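ingest -> validate -> predict -> emit
validate: passed (alphabet ok, no gaps, 113 aa)
predict: started
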Amino acid sequence: MESQKVDLFMISNAKYFESYHLAEVRVKLLELDDEKWPVIQSLQLKDPTTSLIISIVGGGTLGIDRFYIGDTGLGIGKLLTCGGIGIWTIVDWFLIMGATRNKNMEMFLNALY
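emit:
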């Protein structure tokens, strides 16, 4: 039964993590107590595709993409510099999906403890 819950979580949430994080997520889930499952299942993981769309459609210049994933400091920096005069915005088009997945991993690990 425990393995089935882990498999179901992995299938439905794999896109929210980097591929190299998946093995660690699986191991942590297999070691997880039953009391922690509701916490893990209720995590509000951010969709990397949504953050990319926000960044491309115009929220990148204002830092909305960074605010969306919880990088408040970087969001304020992008807001005050108009996305680094556009350069930071373009760079983030290539980095924001990875940053979102890393934030999801951080959120997942924080929920375990």
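The radius of gyration is 16 Å.
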